[in-house]
């Protein structure tokens, strides 16, 4: 069961690695790249905590193997902020509207919401609820998260960015 | 929660992939989007020594018109199906069923061929394939063949595909102008597998009688099912005089092994199934009548 060489661009940085085929993309990001922002909750595609962008599309990093990402561009939650550390509009909105509590689900929600708002720039509340339904949060009761995504969609999420 | 070790193959042609499946036999499994297979591997409900990844295989993706049908490559993602203007216009039942599959993150990886070959009894696409009389193209080292959807689903997670056969594409017939389509399902949470659901296609003649119809059922047996007796009873009847509730009851009356589990008893599923068929029928007939 030979290891396979892969080339992946992660958050803009080209990487090469030799990985066992059974290594999931999530474990590759966490263990090999040291990018522990991608969280693993259920490891079978239910919770959404491991959501990353694969060539721009939100996917569950626990439901694919690193070898399948060969040649792809991956963006994790670490790649959401600007190079100077300035938070993205979605991240600002989560902070400003109490969109996180313990923070475990937050990376997956931020990545999902970022992709969702790119594809649905003017969503209804109903569409936001549907768009977030693939990410589970066990603390917040979701209201803060919904408010944050609403605010990010309305362009009002970064009100306190200078604070 | 980590899959067991396997050898990875990433062939570049469908023939090469089918050759690998033929050579490796039961120890190999084809993987497309992996949205059903990887959880099964992670939970070790399934273990394979070899995975044959189809991601590099050419000719497995795309939506196009072929001989009057709409052909969809097996490796086309559910998101691509959802975004296809041709599917929306010519096979609306498929467009309407797609948002009900999992969540958008799942649909970005999951493929139409994977969903149909996996043949989960509670999944949407197999029921749509049944309701529309889709034709499934399979390739093996022995050649290619076409399997009608009605002969494809043979049992729990099993299909008419031979171990060395690869599903390469699905052809959906395009219905006439006076047609209507609807999917109804009941799930406890958005994105969950349906407890019960129905996909309905109805085509009316110039006098408003049912020229033909298809009723695909999901979540209501060990396989996706087609309500053939209910379809036969409705065909030829006037769309205005047929009772949707009766068609719902007829569709469920044919079923012999409705599952009973934590989520719903068999009786409750039967009740829900009849309601889902009736609602879908009503909406499909309304659309066909208004067309």
TrEMBL record, chain A:
Keyword Phosphoprotein attributed: no
Gene3D superfamilies with a match to the protein in the record: 3.10.20.30, [2Fe-2S]-binding domain (1.10.150.120)
Family annotation (CDD domains): fer2 (cd00207)
Oxidoreductase recorded as keyword: yes
PROSITE patterns cross-referenced by the UniProt entry: 2FE2S_FER_1, 2FE2S_FER_2
Pfam family for this entry, one: Fer2
Domain of life: Bacteria
Domain 2Fe-2S ferredoxin-type: 4-80
Cited InterPro entries: 2Fe-2S-bd (IPR002888), 2Fe-2S-bd_dom_sf (IPR036884), 2Fe-2S_ferredoxin-like_sf (IPR036010), 2Fe-2S_ferredoxin-type (IPR001041), 2Fe2S_fd_BS (IPR006058), Beta-grasp_dom_sf (IPR012675), Diverse_Oxidoreductases (IPR051452)
Keywords from the UniProt entry: 2Fe-2S, Iron, Iron-sulfur, Metal-binding, Oxidoreductase
Name of this chain's protein: (2Fe-2S)-binding protein
UniProtKB/TrEMBL annotation, chain B:
Alphabetic keyword roster: FAD, Flavoprotein, Oxidoreductase
InterPro entries attached to this UniProt entry: CO_DH_flav_C (IPR005107), CO_DH_flav_C_dom_sf (IPR036683), Diverse_Substr_Oxidored (IPR051312), FAD-bd_PCMH (IPR016166), FAD-bd_PCMH-like_sf (IPR036318), FAD-bd_PCMH_sub1 (IPR016167), FAD-bd_PCMH_sub2 (IPR016169), Mopterin_DH_FAD-bd (IPR002346)
Domain of life: Bacteria
Keyword Oxidoreductase: yes
Ranges of residues in domain FAD-binding PCMH-type: 1-177
Keyword RNA-binding: no
Listed name of the protein: Xanthine dehydrogenase family protein subunit M
Organism of provenance: Actinocorallia aurantiaca
